Amino acid sequence: MSNSTDSWSRFDRRERLLRFFGLLAGLVILVAAWRAMEVNYGYAVTAPRELADLFGRMYPPNVGYSRKIVGPLLETINISILGTALAIVMAIPVAFLGASNTAPNKPAYLLGKFIISFTRSVNVIIWALIFVVIFGPGALAGVLAISIRSIGFTAKLIAEAIEEIDRGSVEAITAAGASPVDVLIYSIVPQIKPAFISVATLRWDINVRASTIIGFVGAGGIGVPLQTEINYFNWEAVLTILISILGLVLISEAISAYLRKKVM
Amino acid sequence: MLTVDNLEKTYDSGDKALKGVSFEVSGNEIVAIIGPSGAGKSTLVRSINRLTEPTAGRVSLDDTEVTGLDKSALRDVRRDMGMIFQEFNLVERLTVMENILSGRLGYLSTWNAFRRNFPPEDIKRAREILSRVNLEGVENNRADELSGGQRQRVGIARAVIQRPKILLADEPTSALDPDTSREVMSLLTDIAHEDDIPIIINIHEVDLAVDYADRIIGLSDGEIVFNGPPDDLDQAARDKIYRGGESIADREGPSAGSSTDSDDVIAERGD
Amino acid sequence: MAAESGSAVEGSWERPTVFYNKKVKYLIYGLILLFFAYSFWNLRISPSRFVRGIGAGVELVTSMLPPAYTPSQRELLIQGIVESIVMTIVATTIGIIVSVPVAIMASNNLSPKPVYYVGRSIVAVTRSLHELIVAIIMVKAVGFGPLAGVLALAFKTIGFFAKLLAEEIEDIDRGQMEAITAVGGTPVQTYLYGVLPQVMPRIIGLSIYRLDINLRHSTVVGIVGAGGIGITLLNSFDKYDYQFSMAIIAVIVAIVMVGEGVSALARRRIQ
Ligand SMILES: Nc1ncnc2c1ncn2[C@@H]1O[C@H](COP(=O)(O)OP(=O)(O)OP(=O)(O)O)[C@@H](O)[C@H]1O
Ligand SMILES: [Mg+2]
């Protein structure tokens, strides 16, 4: 051992070397990545100034404009609620497939798992693009995009709740001569209800945020006027919209947190 | 009358839990099934209402052969058999009242079950049973707010409201403290006498079995090795149930002799 | 509870509801229904539109399959993906570097109240705005291309990273910190030796997690012009080249899934 009494180090030599090369590799990758972006340094250097400039032009927010965004804001809320509701309706059967204790057979279980991971892997804006092509621009495409995107998340968490069900009361009610549907109503549903409500409100909270941007591809909500105003450089109106979105998101977050606490 | 005839159960894992068990239970008899862990006690009571599907043999309740019924007929006969569980098996998030009423689900249409629309006589009876099991006033509490003893009494109420022809209990006292265990046992014996139905109780504590049962069935390794009144449960019988016939003397004395004279040793102990 | 003593009430029971009473409950249900009706009307969702949409959907799906690309499109695809990955790496690094001081500001055990509120506000704002909103603004500020995307992703990283890291910092053992201060450590030394070692595992875990999230986002910010594969996807939709769109989506899904798998694996290895 080369450790002398007056020098101490946290890691032995091999470990230090490994760490060193790990760090070096990280740096190399980072530099390579930066260079690969081929950033125009002119832009990069002026970026902070541009940003400051932009916010300068945004202030003060256009208060008069706020009347015009009430409609789109309500539409945003509508989209988030309808999208979440629809997602849950579709997620319930998927959850029962994707839960190992309720899946009727192995292929059905795998199908459930596939739907869960596939719907989650495609971003909401891509779903919005697709549904705008199908149903034309508007909130309908937004609702569908939000709902399809949400299936995976909701179904996954509901499936986990189903897998954690206490079999005891299922058995007790079966032993009293109840039918499988009775068992569902009396034992399974009460057991997954809290998880169900908290998943729904949590997802709704996420979906409020998502509903603010699907307008960029024409799928309705506050994103539509936001994009328009940005394109016309109406920065004061943009700030008004941004503030309203901030408010909406914070309120929905508070409501969602309150509801989740209440069902616990 | 319940007849169990040559009942066998072999689990998928290959475990032979029951190896041809036969007995009868009738009147308002309290039958305690005792035996070491893994003897097959749970398997036996659960095979009676087919929560566990027996592999061979027959179970009959009065004139109905339970084994061999199709699903819907099985549900009908299950309404006549109340079951009480070690871990109570209540729906924790439902109220006491709903838990008790769930014993009547076998008589309710799905639509009424969905609306929780129980007939007035069920609700009236639920209230009567609540006072019978000493639980007045807690009907609106959620099951998870109750103590263990209270929960087990809800479990009993749920079984009693079925108006069963027989009660099956799988270690109803194992999750309870000794005093509460005795309360539960005397409640069960009262029910048997008042409602004039037999009860089969799996039980770990031999003392409880001796104190409360009219008859004791000793199960060892999937077979009945004792079947008689508590008074007959002498040390020899206990050894047979719990040590597969090997007596304490066999174990204690290093030179206690071969197994051929173990009977004499047991006889000498008297007890 | 005078109402409960009547004989009519004996046969009825009402489940306590979380709402004030039954009327309020039905009122709330009614309002919810009304809201849905209004929403449907408001969004002009009609059955006929739906049916037409299904036809269009089938048409779209058939025109998307099989996914395909020409050689030049293949170049575009690869370029876009590489750009997304590159953006992810740079943005995550910048985001984390900025996040650490913000996290210290936003933890109530290390920062004085005014600083704490500033930190919390930064977290709140960076968390509330969707990455695409940030991206679209960055595009206006610094022009089309990956730089805007990097800034947007880094911005979003702050909200996530600083919030979770601040929570971790709030849970640290103050003793270790005070020990460093007590032996005369400067504030920087205190952070380096008293705080950092305690939160380092969390920093690494969160970094890997955020890398995964940024990878997902980097594939879509291009839709508003902020670099990466997103712009290629949008163009393919605009040109009705749905087979190419499908190819891009498939590649995105594959990359996202691989990223998620690697991230999960790496986090498990570290723990
Ligand atoms: N679901 C099952 N699958 C496979 N084997 C089982 C199953 N349940 C029980 N067994 C086996 O059957 C045998 C009898 O088990 P059982 O639970 O009936 O015993 P018990 O007398 O109730 O024991 P305890 O006093 O521990 O409750 C044991 O060997 C056990 O391992
Ligand atoms: Mg048992």
From TrEMBL, chain A:
The chain crosses the membrane at residues 20-37, 77-103, 124-148, 237-259. InterPro entries: MetI-like, MetI-like_sf, PhnE/PtxC. One of its GO terms (cellular component) is plasma membrane. PROSITE patterns: ABC_TM1. It is a multi-pass membrane protein. It comes from the Archaea. Residues 73-256 form the ABC transmembrane type-1 domain. GO terms for molecular function: ABC-type phosphonate transporter activity. It is found in: Cell membrane. SUPFAM superfamilies: MetI-like. PANTHER family: ABC TRANSPORT SYSTEM PERMEASE PROTEIN P69 (PTHR30043:SF1), PHOSPHONATES TRANSPORT SYSTEM PERMEASE PROTEIN (PTHR30043). This is Phosphonate ABC transporter, permease protein PhnE. The gene is phnE.
UniProtKB/TrEMBL annotation, chain B:
Residues 244-271 are annotated as: Disordered. Residues 244-253 have a biased composition (Basic and acidic residues). InterPro entries: AAA+_ATPase, ABC_transporter-like_ATP-bd, ABC_transporter-like_CS, ABC_transpr_PhnC, MetN_ABC_transporter-like, P-loop_NTPase. Transmembrane segments: none annotated. One of its GO terms (molecular function) is ABC-type phosphonate transporter activity. Keywords: ATP-binding, Cell membrane, Membrane, Nucleotide-binding, Translocase, Transport. Gene3D superfamilies: P-loop containing nucleotide triphosphate hydrolases (3.40.50.300). Pfam families: ABC_tran (PF00005). One of its GO terms (cellular component) is membrane. Residues 2-246 form the ABC transporter domain. PANTHER family: AMINO ACID IMPORT ATP-BINDING PROTEIN (PTHR43166), PHOSPHONATES IMPORT ATP-BINDING PROTEIN PHNC (PTHR43166:SF6). This is Phosphonates import ATP-binding protein PhnC. It comes from Haloarcula sebkhae. The lineage of its organism: Archaea, Methanobacteriati, Methanobacteriota, Stenosarchaea group, Halobacteria.
TrEMBL record, chain C:
Gene3D superfamilies: MetI-like. Belongs to the binding-protein-dependent transport system permease family. It comes from the Archaea. It is found in: Cell membrane. GO terms for molecular function: ABC-type phosphonate transporter activity. This is Phosphonate ABC transporter, permease protein PhnE. GO terms for cellular component: plasma membrane. The lineage of its organism: Archaea, Methanobacteriati, Methanobacteriota, Stenosarchaea group, Halobacteria. CDD domains: TM_PBP2. The chain crosses the membrane at residues 26-43, 84-106, 132-155, 219-237, 243-266. It is a multi-pass membrane protein. InterPro entries: MetI-like (IPR000515), MetI-like_sf (IPR035906), PhnE/PtxC (IPR005769). Its main location: membrane. Keywords: Cell membrane, Membrane, Transmembrane, Transmembrane helix, Transport. Residues 81-263 form the ABC transmembrane type-1 domain.
